[in-house]
Amino acid sequence: MIAIVDYGAGNLVSVKKALDWLGQECAITSDPASVAQASKIILPGVGHFAATKMLLRTGLQGAIAHAITREIPFLGICVGMQWMFKGSEESPETTGLGLFAGECERFPTNVKSPHVGWNRLQLAASSRLLRGVPPSSFVYFSHSFRAPVGETTVANCEYGGRVSAAMERGQTFGVQFHPEKSGETGLTVLRNFCTI
């Protein structure tokens, strides 16, 4: 079963509908024990980075971190991906999981923020998550803070400079865009995750 983590922030129903359409057994849950037993975990996210504090308070962070050490496939979406870094300028007092190096920062003032709408993916490295995604595919973004480009970046986009659009290391994945709102390309990404 794929656990869709409910911590009070995220497009939970949209993600579940996409997985249901793909024929995947999944459930929305806020129970750490259910997350710990899941075959795969998805952490959606919408809104303020401070919402991720709830993961620590409820025991969900520990369940997720332990699952990652056991190499259970994990996918963070939008704020869920940003949480995989050390933190974010959006909420300096909130600590991320620290799986990826660096912190998320606000977009520069020369572009409109939030970055909302469709943007092209620039594939930066081979990726199991993005297998079958054509170069320059459009995906849907909605975010005011951006993740740094680093060695785990497998796709980026241009918006006030290069922005990490997808990260991958081992069984751990993150996408800044919303696959559940990105049409066939987004379904391909979710389908790939489900088969990892």
Secondary structure blueprint with pairings:
Layout: E1 2-5, H1 12-21, E2 26-29, H2 32-37, E3 40-43, H3 53-58, H4 60-69, E4 74-77, H5 79-82, E5 87-88, E6 103-106, E7 115-120, E8 122-123, E9 138-143, E10 145-146, E11 153-158, E12 162-169, E13 172-175, H6 183-195
Parallel strand pairs: 1-2, 1-3, 3-4, 4-13, 5-6
Antiparallel strand pairs: 6-10, 7-9, 8-11, 11-12, 12-13
Characterize the structure shown.
The chain has 196 residues and is of the alpha/beta class. It has a single domain (2-195), classed as Class I glutamine amidotransferase (GATase) domain (Rossmann fold), CATH 3.40.50.880. The protein has helices at residues 12-21, 32-37, 53-58, 60-69, 79-82, 183-195, and strands spanning 2-5, 26-29, 40-43, 74-77, 87-88, 103-106, 115-120, 122-123, 138-143, 145-146, 153-158, 162-169, 172-175. Strand 11 and strand 12 (162-169) form a beta hairpin.
Strand order of the largest sheet: 2-1-3-4-13-12-11-8
* CATH topology call: Rossmann fold
Number of helices: 6
What is the arithmetic mean of pLDDT? 94
How many structural domains does the protein architecture include? Answer: 1
Task: Look at the structure and name the CATH superfamily.
Answer: Class I glutamine amidotransferase (GATase) domain
Indicate the proportion of strand residues.
25-35%
* SS class: alpha/beta
